[in-house]
Amino acid sequence: MSEEKTKSCVMCGKTIPAYSNFCPYCGAKQPWLDEDEVNNQDVKRILKWYQKPVGKFISLVVAGLVIYFVGSLFTLQDGPGHKTVARELNQYLFNAQDKTPYGKKPSVKADKKKGVTIKISSDSKAVKYLKAGKPAKWDYLVNRSRDRSKAFHKVYANPEYAKFKVVDKHDKKKVLLKIDSGTVKYNIADKYKK
Predict the structure, then answer these.
(1) CA–CA distance, 113 with 32 (Å, rounded to integer)
(2) d(CA 5, CA 19)
(3) Are 82 and 110 in contact (CB under 8 A)?
(4) Could you give the CA distance from residue 47 to residue 60 in angstroms, rounded to a whole number?
(5) How many Cβ atoms from other residues are within 10 Å of residue 166's Cβ?
(6) Which residue stretches of the chain have pLDDT < 70?
(7) φ and ψ at 172, to 5 degrees?
(8) For the packed helices 82-94 and 136-155, what is the interaxial angle rounded to 10 degrees?
(9) Are 177 and 164 in contact (CB under 8 A)?
(10) Are 30 and 20 in contact (CB under 8 A)?
């Protein structure tokens, strides 16, 4: 009875027939070996490099780097820095103007831990008109802020950027508007509705 020549699978290490192109156990493609290479000790040693401690370590490091690289491509980004967010909002809400219906030099401050704070003057035209029953200018600010808050909620990984608070620039404790992820939580206009 002739003894069949065998080789080890390059992936799982099980003994398989020497002529196999694929491992019947794990399905891994096998290198083609010439007749004299099947029993060559150098070839066996090269094919089993991954079973040695150094080979296992190298395999783990390479696998870890591949996972890290692929994972970094698909993670949510925290987004731009707080100064960039504040500058963009100032442009979006006030056209980066010093004189606005919301007072002189309204300011926008973005903080990664506290959210976005918009400072306007409570004695501005928009607030005076609101108290007089003409909320158009105030509603413009509310709608623009709500839309941007909703957009930030979907874009940035940091949920604090979606929290907007409009306060009086002379009294920070006087809150005029609060928005969280596009939902208005508090609006001073509710006080003046008739």
Answers:
(1) 60
(2) 8
(3) yes
(4) 17
(5) 28
(6) 1-3, 32-51, 74-80, 194
(7) -60, -20
(8) 150
(9) yes
(10) yes
Q: If we measure between CA atoms, which residue out of 123, 179, 182 comes closest to residue 147? A: 182
Residue 123 CA, distance from chain mean position = 39
CA distances, 40 to each of 5, 35, 36, 37, 43 (Å): 12, 10, 7, 5, 6
Check if the beta carbon of residue 148 is closer than 8 Å to that of residue 166. no
Q: How buried is 106 (Cβ within 10 angstroms: 0-12 exposed, 13-18 middle, 19+ buried)? A: buried
Work out the number of other CB atoms within 10 angstroms of the CB of residue 186.
14
CB 44 within 8 Å of CB 5: no
Digit-coded pLDDT (tens) for 108-162 = 998 888 889 999 988 889 989 988 889 999 999 999 999 998 988 877 777 888 8
What pLDDT is attached to residue 42?
62
The three-state DSSP-derived secondary structure of the chain is CCCCCEEECCCCCCEEECCCCECCCCCCECCCCCHHHCCCHHHHHHHCHHHCHHHHHHHHHHHHHHHHHHHHHHCCCCCCCHHHHHHHHHHHHHCCCCEECCEECCEEEEECCCEEEEEECCCCHHHHHHHCCCCHHHHHHHHHHHHHHHHHHHHCCCHHHHEEEEEECCEEEEEEEEEECCEEEEECHHHHCC
